[in-house]
Design brief:
Blueprint lengths: L15 H9 L5 H5 L5 E4 L13 E9 L4 E4 L5 E9 L2 E8 L2 H5 L6 E11 L2 E11 L10 E4 L8 H13 L11 H6 L5 H9 L4 H31 L12 H6 L6 H13 L7 E6 L5 H14 L3 E5 L3 H16 L5 E4 L5 H13 L4 E4 L13 E6 L7 H8 L6 E6 L5 H8 L3 E5 L10 E5 L4 H13 L3 E5 L13 H11 L5 E4 L5 H12 L5 E4 L12 E6 L7 H8 L10 E5 L5 H12 L3 H12 L1 H4 L2 H4 L13 H17 L7 H11 L9
Parallel strand pairs: 5-7, 9-14, 9-15, 10-12, 10-13, 11-12, 13-14, 16-21, 17-19, 17-20, 18-19, 20-21
Antiparallel strand pairs: 1-8, 2-4, 2-6, 3-4, 4-5, 6-7
The structure holds adenosine-5'-diphosphate (ADP) and magnesium ion.
Adenosine-5'-diphosphate (ADP) binds next to α10.
C-alpha cells in the first residue's frame, strides 16, 4: 500500500522524465499531487445538439460517426484527419491535426460523446481535435465532470489523472481533518477525505461546489488562524521609544521638497516610534509616488536616537540602488550606511558584517541576505521591507526577530481594496501616498501590433538621438514557447537593426555582480537600450530613461505592466510606453487599452481583478501572504468573514491550538517559508 509521502515515481507510467516534469509543478510526492487541485472542470454531462451550436466554444456533442476518417498529409510530417459526425439535429465536420491515433479509434456508425472546441468561420463550423468516449448501450448518461489540472509542456491531463488517482488510493481511512467537527457541522461542510475525493473525482457539479466550499473555508480558516496568532504575538510587545523625533534636518537634507503625502506619512511614523508601542505600518503608494524617502526618514530617526535600522529590498539591483541614493543623503546628517548582499565577495562581506555588529553601520541596506544567521545587528530598532509583496510573511518576521520588537515599515505599490486590507492585515496601520511628486508628465502609452514594428524601431532611435534611453522588456520564455522573443535573442536582433546604438541585456539567470554592472552602466548612460526580463519590474530608478517598449505585453498582468511602466516618467523628459501584443485578439487589445487610458494604479488593479479574475492577483506575489490556492478573498468574502470570526474564537479559548494538533500543524505548514521562490 503506497503512502502519501511516497514519490510519484512509484506510480505506474511515471519514469524519470515525467517525474522531472511533475517536479516543475512542485509535485514530488503523492501528497503534492493530492494538493494540486484542478484549475477548472469540463462539464461533459451537458450535451448540446449540433444544430444549437452557434458560437465558438467548447461543447459536448453526442453523435454518430457518419464518414470514414480520411487522412491527408499537409506539410512535412503534418497530418490532417477529417470526418463527419451527426445527431438528430444536424451534422458537423471533425478535424484532427497531427493526431492520427485519436481518429483511428473512431468507427463509422458508432455513437460517441465528443468533447472539444468548435470553431466557426462564417457559416462553416468545425469541431477541432475533440476527445471522444464511446457510448455503450448500458450507460444511461455517458457525460462526466472532468477535472482539468494545471499542466506544463510534456504532461497531459491523463498523466495528472493517473497520479491523483494513485494519491487518492493512498489516503488512509483515518485521514485527519484540520477543521474541528463543530465548525463542519455549523457550516455544513463535508469532511476532508470526502472533499478531496470530490475535488479530484467528482460525480456531479453539486459535488464540486460543496467540496470547493469546504476547501475555501479551510484555507481561509487556516490563514486567519495564522494571521491572528502573528497579531497576538505583536500586540503583547512593547515598542522601543525614539528619543529624538525631530525631522527638520532630514527635510532640509532632501534635494527636493517632499510632497504633502510624504510629509504626512513621515510625521505619523515619527509619532508611532515615540509612542511606546511597536509600529506596524504599511505605506501604500503607486509607482513613483516616492516611498523610498519615507523609509529613509525612518532610518534617519532610528540612527539619531542611537539605534540601527535595516532596509530590505527584494533584488540585488534594487538594494544597490537604494544604497547609492540613501548613503549620500544620510551622510549629510552624519549617518553611516552599509550594503549587504549575497553576491559580495568574502572580504566585503566580512567588513560589512563587522560594521553591522559593532554599530559602525547605523543603516544597513540589503537583500534577504540580511536575515541570514551570520548577521548580528547592533540595537536593531527599525525594519523596512520594500516592495513587501515580494517577501513572505516569514521572511519579514525573520528580519524583525533580529532585533527586539523593532518598528516595522512595509512598502507596497500594490493597491488592495480597503475592506480586504482590513481583513487580511487587521491591525496593520496604513499610510497612503496619494500624491505624485510635482513636475511629472504622464507617460504617453500606446498599444500596438506587429505592423507598427518599423515605426517603433525608428521611434526608439529618435528618442536616443534626443538624449533619452530605452528599456525593452521581454517575457520569460519557457521551454517550447517558440513564438515569443527571449531577451537575449531580442537584444541581438535590436543591435543588428540599430548597429550605431549600444544595447545591453539583463535577465534573471545572469550573476548578480554582472546584473549590477549592467544596471549601473545603463544608469551612467554607457548604454542606450536595456533589453531585460521583468527583473527591472520593481523599483529600478533611471530618470533619464524615457521610453519603455514591452514585447508580448499580452503575456503580463495589467498591474504588472503598470508597475513596469513606472520605470519611465521619472525625469522631466516626456516619456512613452509602448505595448506590443495589441494584434493578439480582441481581449488582449481591450486589456492593453485600459493602460493607455489611465495612469491610476488603483483603477488598473480594479480592472485587472474584474478581467482576469482574482486568482492571479491574490497569488503570493501580490501581497506577501501565503498563497491561496482555492479561495478568492473577494468572491468568498462572506466565508472569509466567518472564517475570521471562528479563528478569533478558537484562539481566544486556546491560543496555541494545543487541543487541535492537526489544525496547528497545518497552520504552521501554511506559513512556512518556501525557499524555492525566485526573487530575481
Ligand atoms: P516609489 O514609490 O516607486 O518607490 P521612488 O521612491 O523610487 O518611488 O521615487 C521615484 C523618484 O521620484 C525618485 O527619483 C525620487 O528621487 C523622486 N522623488 C521622490 N519624492 C520626490 C519629491 N517630493 N519631489 C521630487 N522628486 C521626488
Ligand atoms: Mg520603490
Amino acid at each position: 500500500m503506497p503512502a502519501l509521502e511516497d514519490s510519484i515515481r512509484f506510480v505506474k507510467g511515471v519514469g524519470p522524465k515525467k517525474a522531472a516534469l511533475f517536479e516543475k509543478l512542485h509535485i514530488r510526492t503523492l501528497r503534492d499531487a493530492l494538493e494540486t487541485y484542478p484549475r477548472d472542470y469540463e462539464d461533459r454531462s451537458v450535451i448540446t445538439s449540433i444544430a444549437d451550436i452557434a458560437e465558438d466554444g467548447k461543447y459536448a456533442v453526442r453523435a454518430v460517426v457518419g464518414t470514414e476518417p480520411k487522412t491527408t498529409r499537409i506539410r512535412k510530417g503534418m497530418t490532417l484527419v477529417k470526418c463527419t459526425i451527426f445527431d438528430q439535429s444536424g451534422s458537423l465536420p471533425v478535424t484532427y491535426f497531427n493526431n492520427p491515433y485519436a481518429a483511428a479509434l473512431l468507427r463509422v456508425g458508432q455513437e460517441y460523446v465528443f468533447y472539444g472546441r468548435v470553431q466557426i468561420n462564417g457559416h462553416a463550423r468545425m469541431l477541432v481535435s475533440p476527445q471522444s468516449e464511446k457510448v455503450s448501450p448500458d450507460a444511461a448518461h455517458p457525460g462526466r465532470i472532468v477535472p482539468v489540472y494545471p499542466l506544463t509542456a510534456g504532461l497531459t491531463q491523463r498523466d495528472m489523472a493517473r497520479v491523483t488517482e494513485a494519491a487518492l488510493d493512498a489516503v488512509p481511512g483515518d485521514w485527519p481533518d484540520p477543521l474541528p467537527e463543530v465548525l463542519r457541522a455549523r457550516y455544513t461542510l463535508p469532511d476532508a477525505a470526502d472533499a478531496l475525493a470530490a475535488i479530484h473525482r467528482p460525480q456531479s457539479a453539486q459535488d464540486v461546489t460543496e467540496a470547493r466550499r469546504r476547501m475555501v473555508f479551510e484555507e481561509l480558516f487556516l490563514l486567519c488562524c495564522g494571521l491572528q496568532q502573528l497579531k497576538e504575538r505583536r500586540r503583547a510587545d512593547t515598542g522601543l521609544v525614539f528619543s529624538d523625533s525631530s525631522l527638520a534636518d532630514f527635510f532640509a537634507a532632501l534635494p527636493f521638497s517632499p510632497t504633502g503625502a510624504q510629509r504626512r506619512a513621515i510625521g505619523v511614523i515619527a509619532s508611532d516610534c515615540a509612542s511606546g508601542r511597536p509600529m506596524n505600518r504599511l505605506v501604500q503608494g503607486d509607482v513613483g509616488s516616492g516611498k523610498t524617502v519615507v523609509a529613509a526618514a525612518l532610518c534617519a530617526l532610528a540612527a539619531k536616537s542611537g539605534y540601527q535600522a535595516a532596509f530590505m529590498a527584494p533584488t540585488e539591483i534594487l538594494a544597490a540602488q537604494h544604497a547609492e541614493t540613501l548613503a549620500p543623503l544620510l551622510a549629510t546628517l552624519g549617518i553611516s550606511c552599509t550594503l549587504l548582499t549575497g553576491s559580495m565577495n568574502a572580504a566585503q562581506k566580512r567588513a560589512a558584517l563587522a560594521a553591522i555588529e559593532s554599530g559602525a553601520a547605523q543603516v544597513v541596506i540589503g537583500t534577504h541576505a540580511l536575515i541570514q544567521q551570520s548577521v548580528n545587528f547592533y540595537r536593531l530598532s527599525a525594519v523596512v521591507a520594500d516592495e513587501q509583496h515580494r517577501f513572505g510573511v516569514a521572511q519579514r518576521a525573520a528580519l524583525s526577530a533580529k532585533g527586539q520588537t523593532p518598528h516595522v515599515l512595509v512598502m507596497s505599490a500594490t493597491p488592495i481594496p480597503r475592506t480586504l486590507a482590513l481583513i487580511l492585515y487587521g491591525d496593520l496601520d496604513v499610510s497612503v501616498l496619494d500624491e505624485v511628486p510635482p513636475g511629472r508628465q504622464p507617460v504617453e502609452t500606446y498599444a500596438v501590433g506587429e505592423n507598427m514594428r518599423r515605426r517603433i524601431t525608428a521611434f526608439i532611435d529618435k528618442q536616443i538621438r534626443e538624449g533619452g534611453q530605452v528599456y525593452v522588456v521581454c517575457p520569460l520564455v519557457e521551454e517550447g514557447e517558440m513564438n515569443l522573443k527571449s531577451a537575449e535573442q531580442h537584444a541581438l536582433d535590436l543591435q543588428k537593426t540599430l548597429p550605431h546604438r549600444r544595447v545591453a541585456v539583463l535577465h534573471g539567470r545572469m550573476k548578480s555582480a554582472e546584473k549590477e554592472r549592467v544596471m549601473q552602466a545603463f544608469a551612467a548612460k554607457e548604454y542606450d537600450i536595456l533589453v531585460a526580463t521583468t527583473v527591472i519590474e520593481v523599483g529600478v530608478d533611471v530618470p533619464n530613461a524615457n521610453l519603455m517598449v514591452v514585447e508580448d505585453a499580452d503575456r503580463f498582468g495589467l498591474s504588472q505592466l503598470h508597475q513596469l511602466r513606472g520605470r519611465v516618467g521619472r525625469g522631466t523628459r516626456q516619456s512613452y510606453c509602448i505595448f506590443f501584443g495589441a494584434d493578439k485578439g480582441q481581449t488582449a487589445r481591450e486589456r492593453l487599452k485600459i493602460l493607455c487610458k489611465t495612469n491610476d494604479g488603483f483603477e488598473i488593479a480594479r480592472a485587472d481583478l474584474s478581467q482576469r479574475g482574482p486568482g492571479d492577483f491574490f497569488g503570493r506575489r501580490q501581497h506577501g501572504l501565503p498563497a491561496l490556492h482555492v479561495a478568492d478573498p473577494i468572491a468568498d468574502l462572506a466565508l472569509m468573514r466567518s472564517a475570521r470570526e471562528e479563528a478569533e474564537q478558537i484562539l481566544q479559548a486556546d491560543p496555541t491550538l494545543a487541543g487541535y494538533p492537526e489544525l496547528r500543524a497545518r497552520v504552521h505548514r501554511m506559513f512556512e517559508e518556501r525557499d524555492d521562490e525566485a526573487f530575481n
